[in-house]
Amino acid sequence: AGVTEERLVALTATELSPAIAPRPKAEFLGTFRHPTAEDLEEREAQLSDQKSQGLVGLWEWCRAGQVHEGLAPEMWGVYSPEHNTVIERAFQAGETKALIAVGIRTYEIMFEGSSFGGRQVDTQHKKRRYVRRRAMTTSQREAALNAADLALSNALSEDPTLVDAECVICADSFADTPALPVVQLPGCGHRFHGACVQDLADKRRPCPCCRAEVNWRAVRFTHSPSQSQGYSSNS
Fold first, then answer.
1. Which one of 1, 50, 85, 103 is at 20 to 30 Å from 212 when CA atoms are compared?
2. Strands (E), 37-124
3. Residue 83: which H helix or E strand, with range?
4. Digit-coded pLDDT (tens) for 113-149
């Protein structure tokens, strides 16, 4: 009878076909660096120094997509007082992130390295933007937080129908959520929180109220805590 010889051959990476070789996954957060123990110690020291000077933290989110340096002040939006408290409490406690809800969406505020900033991340929709913490006096922070109420008051003066209107997606009234930007669809004119309608904009869906087709690139904010900006798909 014949003898069958079994041979084991080790395949090296160079022998794999380029067409089927595994490709590395793109890093969702890019160059983001998670805090180390040393980073947290440095953060604690800096916070202690700021506290001795009577300074507190104000958290802001970047309106631009992936650019955050050298921007004008109006390109940074202010979180609501409630969200600012949640984020600041987590940062002061040495946490690596904080969790907030904006409309129907949930975000992770991820603190980067030893810096006083990080990313606002919506993992479900693969959205991210820069955030930063600015140290200032208590009165300066109060003035910045109150700016959202002032912007809403101005918007209500220009359009009194906002007083009793609400976002039909999350069912919260615009008057009760002054820190959330409001968008108005061109054509039909229906209004929603920008965060609530983001998924529809990404998928180029029609208006959820009347099913009218929407040119999402033409959507503009009717009320924003800073100044009106074009609707962004990076939110």
1. 103
2. 56-62, 76-78, 97-102, 105-111, 117-122
3. helix 81-92
4. 999 999 999 988 888 999 999 999 999 999 998 887 7
Amino acid at 229: Q
Query: What is the model's pTM?
Result: 0.71
Residue 38 and residue 43: Cα distance in Å, rounded? 9
> Integer distance in angstroms from the first to the last C-alpha of the chain?
72
186: closest CA among 119, 120, 231, 233?
231
Q: Within 13 Å and on the Cβ side, how many CA atoms surround 58?
A: 19
- Determine whether 126 is exposed, middle or buried from the number of CB atoms within 10 Å of its CB (0-12, 13-18, 19+): exposed
Q: Is 133 helix (H, G, I), strand (E, B) or coil?
A: strand
